[in-house]
Amino acid sequence: MPVTTHIEEHFEASDTVRDVVIGMSDGLTVPFALAAGLSGTVSQTGIVVIAGLAEIAAGSIAMGLGGYLAARTDFDHYRSEREREIRETVELPQKERDEVAEVFRGYGMEEKDIAPVVAAISSDQKRWVDFMMRFELGFEEPNPKRARNSAITIALSYVLGGLVPLAPYMLMSRLFTALSVSVAVTLIALFAFGYVKGKLTGIPPWRGGLQTVVIGGLASAAAFGLAKWIS
Amino acid sequence: MPVTTHIEEHFEASDTVRDVVIGMSDGLTVPFALAAGLSGTVSQTGIVVIAGLAEIAAGSIAMGLGGYLAARTDFDHYRSEREREIRETVELPQKERDEVAEVFRGYGMEEKDIAPVVAAISSDQKRWVDFMMRFELGFEEPNPKRARNSAITIALSYVLGGLVPLAPYMLMSRLFTALSVSVAVTLIALFAFGYVKGKLTGIPPWRGGLQTVVIGGLASAAAFGLAKWIS
Q1: How many other CB atoms sit within 10 Å of the CB of residue A17?
Q2: Taking a C-beta distance cutoff of 8 angstroms, is the pair B154, B18 a contact?
Q3: pLDDT digits (tens, 9 = 90+) for B171-218
Q4: How far apart are CA B179 and CA B182, in angstroms?
Q5: Residue B168 and residue A19: Cα distance in Å, rounded?
Q6: B34 touches chain A (CB under 8 A)
Q7: How many Å from the N-terminal Cα to the C-terminal Cα in chain B?
Q8: Nearest 5°: phi and psi at B90?
Q9: Phi, psi of B209 (to 5 degrees)
């Protein structure tokens, strides 16, 4: 079925895009904001680099493993719901046939037209369970490789994103210069990231770019203000 | 339709649980790991508290606004796809009817049984479009309030989670004591969080608890090791 294949490809591509977006938007934003926040209270770039790299290590592992477990949980959940549906087609076939009919009643079909549809769908157990999973419960079948791919994609995107704001502090010894360069470089990177993200997810690219700049700006302003205030 | 209501409630509840899980698992993990990492290289609790609070501010804003935009993007995407389907039922009705038929062919139905189904579904434009969105494209209609709720839930969960590992550094002046208490308290909190998360998402609670402890432990060990190594 070309339709299904098209849908699956669409979902896999958007899963990867989603993972890159999850990892990179936080990777660009949180280490950036932390470094800017600390720049208001410390006197050397060294402590900013240490805190920033510690944050990147912690954040990439937490988000990567978090993504791994989220994808695994989705997969386990799908499997256990599917097993329950399979059991129900064996133990309560009439109730399950009524549920198939109920879906079509919701689309305004008449009873005399519903009977052959229900008979056709419930004549093959795999098809029947497929139908219940998708149409009654709204589940998409998850890709079993997704958990590992998701973890790696999110973690790498986080590290790559986080190195952008941190590089100036690693390369420059004057704190104020490093902060200025980091802010400039990261705001450009946030805009470019949001622009491309907008193109991929179908929102206007300029709006996408401005959104990520605003998030990064707000987060780092809050971190800067809070660090100044308590120190 | 009680079936649909049940499904919608299921989705809304799992959306909120998902948001709390997203915010709190990162909130418990990343500030914990950052604070532990910095404890290996600085001599006072003050800098750990500043960095930790800056991280909580940055992380909660970045994740909360990120969640807001992700939910908005889902909603906009759903709406633009829906408008495209509405246009297609007007401009290319025969093609759209063929696509409805194609879905049922995939379930093994015979052509003579498909015709009345297609006629019933395509007799009402709203129903027809609903059908295409759900069965051909696999979209669930998103809740329009979800974006704001999602942002607030994620951000608050992050702040609450982040204050657990940070509290000992705020209350105790000796760094090593604060680190020890923070590790103990946070590992207990991570286990309890993972245990409850397991109950809610249907995975065995003990496994859920151990998983979050391992993630938190790995992230903070990596942050600690990296900070020690570069300082």
Answers
A1: 15
A2: no
A3: 999 999 999 999 999 999 999 999 998 888 777 899 989 988 998 899
A4: 5
A5: 34
A6: yes
A7: 63
A8: -85, -45
A9: -65, -45
Tell me what pLDDT residue A52 has.
Answer: 93
Question: Among candidates B49, B37, B29, which has minimal Cα distance to A227?
Answer: B49
Residue B1: pLDDT over 60? no
What's the full length of chain A, in residues?
A: 231
Residue A58 is nearest to which of B135, B137, B223, comparing CB atoms?
B223
Report the percentage of chain A scoring pLDDT > 70. Answer: 94
Q: Report the pLDDT value the prediction gives residue A6, as an integer from 0 to 100.
A: 39
Contact indicator for B23, B60 with CB cutoff of 8 Å: yes
Note whether A227 contacts B50, CB cutoff 8 Å. yes
Would you state the pLDDT for residue B5?
36
Q: Is the dihedral of CA B38, B41, B46, B51 positive or negative?
A: negative
Mention every residue, 6+ apart, whose C-beta is less than 8 A from residue A9. Answer: none
B90 near A CB under 8 A: no
Contact B71, B89 (CB under 8 A): no
Q: How far is CA A138 from CA A100, A149, B38, B133, in A?
A: 13, 24, 46, 12
Contact B116 A123 (CB under 8 A): no
Per CB-CB distance under 8 Å, the chain B contacts of A104 are 117
A18 Cβ contact partners less than 8 Å away, ≥ 6 residues apart = none
The pLDDT of residue B52:
93
Is there a contact between B119 and A110 (Cβ–Cβ < 8 Å)?
A: no
Could you give the dihedral angle defined by the CA atoms of residues B50, B52, B55 and B57, in that order, rounded to the nearest 10 degrees?
-70
ipTM of the complex: 0.74
Q: Which residues of B touch A137 (CB under 8 A)?
A: 7
Identify the band that residue B75 occupies on the pLDDT scale cut at 50, 70 and 90.
Answer: confident
Q: Within chain A, what is the greatest distance between any pair of CA atoms?
A: 80
Higher pLDDT, A3 or B83: B83
Q: 3-class DSSP state for residue B174? A: coil
How far does Cα A208 stand from its chain's mean position?
16
Task: Determine the residue type at B110.
Answer: E
